[in-house]
Amino acid sequence: MSSPDCCESSPLLSTAVQLLTASSLYRYLRLVVNLVAFCLHRPIPQPINPRLTSEDVTVVIPSLQGGGVELLETIRSILLTRPFRIILVTIEAQEARAHLLAKELDCGKLQICSVAQPNKRRQMVRAIPEIETEVTIFADDDVTWPSTLLPWMLAPLEDQRYGGVGTNQRLRRADCPNWQQRVWGYLGALYLERRNFDCASCMFMDGGLPCLSGRTVAYRTSILLDKEFTEQFTHEEWLGQYHLNADDDNFITRWLISHGQKISYQHHKQAEILTTLEDNPKFLKQCLRWSRSNWRSNITSLCCDRHIWKSVRGNFAMDLADRNARIQPWSTYAVYLTTISHWALLWDCLLIYFYLDMARPWSKESQSIGLAMLATWMFLSKFLKLMGHYIRYPVDFLLLPVSILFGYFHGLIKGYAMVSLNVVSLLSFILPVERRYLTQCADCLGKPRGCG
Q: Please, which residues bridge with residue 127 across strands?
């Protein structure tokens, strides 16, 4: 006959096992499946006889500086890919500097445009009426392209179902960095590595991804020429009152999904751009800005648009079986919900607590062995999906504790971002004259005008 204590503890033990199992599955199923998906993912191959070539591409570079060594090198790397045209859109205060840069480059493919006030969305829209090609690529002013990039980015667009294409991204490491630059650069490199991993994995699973990053992204120009797109793009608001200047790439990604356009992510060495991130404490401000963007965009996708998980046919099973459907059940779980549910320190503490609660009836030795196994798995999970970085830079293994601690600290950044989503940009308002300017830009779409 079992003792009363055993009978009383059995339901408690069963609850502890269930809690540990459920929380472990929710936290780590994403990692295990994504590891397999990442290994299986392949980019869309280049066609033997492509219809689209570099002459079908216009590259738009929004820039506040309008000049400088970094922008000069960016444009030079882009010119090596032989696009039809490059449009540099700066602000009026820097237009003269942009013309000096164009004179230094001495090429007929660079066109200069400007807007009155710094606003990336307005700079992007300013260039659209000037575009004459089938494909438009937006690029940041601090990226370096490989000469092999364009054929890979154009390959998915051979299929009319695709409206946008993203690229692989790596950090351009500083030359002879000091120890602070090395640490901050390491954290930035891991951010991009993690993003590449998530994009490739989700693309394989259901054709979704977190966002088509604006660092370098290709769109079908006909999508950008849509007046409805321009109107909503330049007048997007958060909570109906905060005008968004940031989050431009998130908006366009959601627009493509909501309008039935497929998206692609070309994870390939020859489609890999280099970019820069802050290698000083300003990196924390970048993380805060990214976190705010994730909160706003993912909440919009989950609760407002709902295209990523809501069946448009009324038959979820049919949509799930159709690779052309726009629902993204895996990406919803593995990307969008993590904004709300992924808090590293909280999860690790909960898992340890549930384990200790479950292991109370065990011997001390069994408890220690089980706890060591759990801790080992938790440790491995911190860097398994980042192995590509550590293989390329083995010395960075020495900084692994820094990344783990920063992962815990990032929860504070994420929490602060959550309560400050009203901070949308340095210029979070629009003057009436600027609103009229945006309306004029929308009206002139499809009517190319001369630029300087």
A: none
Query: Which tokens belong to 108?
Result: 């007929």
pLDDT at 64 over 80: yes
Please give the distance of CA 230 from its chain centroid, rounded to a whole number: 21
Listed residue (298, 282, 296, 233) closest to 259, CA to CA: 233
Question: What pLDDT digit, counting tens, does each position of 233-287 carry?
Answer: 999 988 888 888 878 999 999 999 999 899 999 999 999 999 999 999 999 999 9
DSSP state letters, 40-80: H--PPPPPSS-S--GGGEEEEEE-SS--SHHHHHHHHHHHT
Rounded-to-integer distance, Cα 434 and Cα 247, Å:
19
Give residue-wise pLDDT tens across range 118-134.
999 999 999 999 999 99
Q: Which residues contact 148 (CB under 8 A, 6 or more apart)?
A: 270, 271
Instruction: Render pLDDT for 24-37 as a digit per residue (tens, 0 to 9).
Output: 999 999 999 999 99
The string of DSSP letters for 270-301 reads GGEEEE----STHHHHHHHHHHHHHHHHHHII
What lies within 8 Å, CB to CB, of 102 at 6+ separation is 88, 110, 112
Measured between alpha carbons, how far is 92 from 123 in angstroms, rounded to an integer? Answer: 11
**135, two tokens:** 């494909």
Closest-CA residue to 132 (of 451, 452, 447): 447
Report the phi/psi class of residue 2: left, alpha or beta, with left for phi > 0 and alpha for psi in -120 to 50.
beta
Per residue in 136-158, pLDDT (tens digit) is: 999 999 999 999 999 999 999 99
Cβ contacts of residue 2 below 8 Å, gap of 6+? none
176-191 pLDDT, tens digit each: 889 999 999 999 999 9
Cβ neighbours of residue 381 under 8 Å, at least 6 residues apart? 28, 31
Q: What is the mean pLDDT of the chain?
A: 87
**C-alpha span between 21 and 46 (Å, rounded):** 44
